[in-house]
Predict the structure of FtsX-like permease family protein.
Amino acid sequence: MIKQYIKQALRMIGENKLLSVISILGTALAICMIMVIVILYVVNTASFKPEVNRGRTCYITTVMSNGKDDNRRISYSSLGLPLVKECCYPLKGAEAVTAINMDRYRPLTASSMDGLKNRTSYISYTDTAFWKVFQFDFLQGGPFSPAAFTSGIRNAVISESVALALFGTDQVVGREMKLDFIVYNICGVVKDVSRFASKAWAEVWIPYTVRDDGGYQEGINGSYSCCVLLKPGVTREELRTEALRKVEEFNAKTRDVKADILHQPSTQIEEWIGGGSEFGANLFYLYVRYGIILFILLLVPALNLSGITLSRMRRRMAELGVRRAFGATQGTILWQVLSENMVLTLLGGLLGLAMSYGAMLLLRDWLLVTSLGKTGLSTGMFNGAVFIAAFLFCLVLNLFSAGLPAWRMSRLNITDSING
């Protein structure tokens, strides 16, 4: 019986091609737009390699320096290394703290020792805790050692793409390369990292001890960001209390300026929407905005689909009347109409899921600001629960817009139904 209903539904799609295509595309576009928004949210907030600890990672990325006497604003920037060492590294509520200096606007030229092959590469200056906070897939070798970091030895971990560009292979541990004509020894090679992993992403990672960077404004301001991996059971509020106490102790040692870490430490979602800004992150506004957008994206296609389905049902009044005249029950007619719309919704849902994936790939430079790279999108970035929720919403709407007229028509007098 179910197979027969499916065959009838497919036949009805063929008989009303225009309306069927519009119904399928309406459902597909609604689901596609919702999934694109959700994917943008997921890739910026959910955990995936190498940022597998986003759920318990907090961020201190900016600091404001003010005058001690007049409290006037002097500078607003990333953190200076002295501030990091005195206020971030000693945090007892942290399992690990890493400092990162990554300039996305000033890449360096990585080249082979003979200078015949080179590649513009983005460099991250960091520490040994970086490899504990983030989990990379090493193809060969490993991170630079604590001893090498402390000594300022010029070791480098490079991505697979850089290794292939310079040497034609990823088995290059122990070989040397140049970064802007300065020689580095390669100690490890990792798989390419998606740019969605904004804190961990780079193409070459080297110890920040290879250069002298004391910051400015008495060590308050500089070019570093801190990622703090919380100990199990420690909350962001507890960490903030401890961090503020460390900042007060730091300010007691400065002469003319004082540091203000604003609303930080920030959670992953707060960092994404501007947790390090002067005004902090407003999560309530974010959720309200997303809710309104999703509601509109569902409502507009839903109203169109309802009108199309209702129009189609009115055109079939005579057909339903004839079926009743030949003995079809109200339940049989109602189930057949609903099954036809279920098939349309299913086709639209599957098409919408495929379209959402395609949209993210084709429009990645616009939607995501930056290229996804080789390891951009993955199926793990798709939220199955949201897809099912959007699909069920469209299904219920389609069934309601078709089922209610069908139920009303099935209760009409047979003669009235045949006469339309």
